[in-house]
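Predicting holo structure, 1,3-dihydroxyacetonephosphate bound.
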Amino acid sequence: MRQPLVAGNWKMNGSSQSIRELLDGIVSGLESKAEVLVCPPAIYIQQAREMLSGTAVKWGLQNVSDKASGAFTGETSPLMAKDLDCKYVIIGHSERRSIFGETDKDVAAKFCALVDQGIVPILCVGETLEEREAGTTMKVVEKQIETVLQEAGSNRLGNFVIAYEPVWAIGTGLTATPEQAQEVHAAIRELLSRTDESVAQKTRILYGGSMKAANAAELMANPDVDGGLIGGASLVAEDFKAICHAAG
Ligand code: 13P
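Done. Tokens:
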């Protein structure tokens, strides 16, 4: 039985004041059987750690370097994430791929670096609208995942999460239908089972892309949708808690 995971990706939003209020709001009255995670901007991780220690809410990064330390101006290392008790780190978000030019190989290197520090990667994958319309959704998603599986090797697949985020649904208000989400999630699980059936059964596959309180329950009711990666709606405490509640 996979415990659902609901993760908030705050992207580049917030201030120390607004984050204090948002974290207070999320922690108070949170009711969920899901594991709940927030990913603030890296500069606010220590603030999140101080406020969330001892609560049911975990914290993590939105991105990480694949290097341990050294002359990499502006980067954050997996060792630093571990030092500040990040349990999860998002990697390969479509904004990292499209705006910052990250390749499947770059994402795979980050995956390996995180696993080697005992941090759980949340690997984001997903197709653009053109790719969906061309009928190549699974080809794109398979390549994104297979590059990571190959680089990681079987002994790094003990604990990771996949987030299926169709690019056309991110921040657009357009959500995949429950049927569209389930179809891709089931295909991802089938892809994992070609490597290892037990990995396929235990790996959580989250949906992301305009998930909100109004559509969360029907998306997460699908057998292969194990939670959500939430952008905009995770910046409003009541909306995020409603999604956590919808997860069970
Ligand atoms: P929205 O929920 O704002 O569409 O963003 C989804 C996302 O990119 C989460 O990583």
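The beta strands are 5-9, 35-39, 57-61, 88-91, 120-125, 161-164, 204-208, 227-230.
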